[in-house]
Amino acid sequence: MVTTQVPAAPSARIGCIDGLRGLALLGILPMNILVFGLPLQSYTSPVADGAVEGAGLAAYVAGELLVEGAMRALFAMLFGAGIAMLGTGERAKGAAIYYRRQFLLLCIGLVDLFVLLWIGDILISYALAGMVLYPCRKWRPKALFVAAGLTFLSLAMLHGAIFAVLTIVPERAAAVEERIAAGEEVSAGERRLLDGWSEAEAELAPTDGVDEQEALRFTGSYWQSFAANAALFGDVWPLVPFMLWDSTACMLLGLALFKTGVLPGDRSSRFYTVLAVVGLTTGLAVNGYEVAMKVGTGFAIQWTSGFAPTYDLGRVSWALGIAAVTVIAFRRGWLPRLRDGLTVVGRMALTNYILQSALALAIFHDLGLGLWNDLARLQLYMIVLAQWVVHVAFSIWWLQRFRFGPLEWLWRSLTYGRIQMAAARPGA
Hints:
single chain; mainly alpha; globular
């Protein structure tokens, strides 16, 4: 007997998963807005946009403490949960359907990167990591937890090595410079070290100026911006393996957390209370330590580079704590309007993610409002609040009329090779 492959109906969705996805989607915007509206280096250091005191510094500290990395981690965990939902049990779709789905997601990510000019697109890494992880859908939770732990451990070791280089090399280069200034002879190896560091520092160290090539991403004609964005991607593409590694670790953890009933909200209230306390306490402590070191060292490169060995411990702990609080809120019926808003945004996560890129073009590109590099961090966060309202209102309006978001409908139709019913049905 041949069965027709179809996507799950909205009524079969897990509300808590959708709510968490909506929270993560909205939560990544406060950091992404910095890349949309300011020079790229502003994402890691406030020196690039002069936010080193007052309200600007407060906005930087809040973002680093409460958002940076954590919402991206939660988003990836939920993608991992999606692998489990699509690949096992009654909702299993088969390898052909799954890989077609991932390939289409990759194509959407490439459009986001090159057409909508979003240099920070994460759909590409999610699609590629998801292709690799499909066989893991049948692993037992213990194996998934071990695999995730080992991946995070390897990341921490790699981060630690890079962090050590960024700490030691500048000190040695400075010592060589002092000797040269004093008229002392230095070896050829020391000169190579100094020259190499000078080149690296020019790339890594934040400046308060604006790179003309980068500025073209949001100024001039669209085709000038297209070329500038493609060139910038060529400069940052070595970071892609880090993003894949990052995504893989979080998705493995998400797979395990789904299979153990954590993300769907199936565990006891005591479990979520403990997870919230431990996650939030650990995350706040680690993130607070890192922020203190960034500010205390005058935003030294080794701290603002994102390669602190404790980076994943802080952000993942905070993400798990936030997830636990959200589950508790869903189960106890707290803030029902906020809960419903997060849920509808989560049901349209792909559409809303691409909408963020489209709105960025309209707001910051010269073809739109042309506000790139004109607003301070705090002003950018006012735009974030306004966009949150847009995402929620648009999602509510759309899902009152249709079963899926527009891109979700297109994605599903192409994945299953048949046009999906678009109109909403009572109770669907």
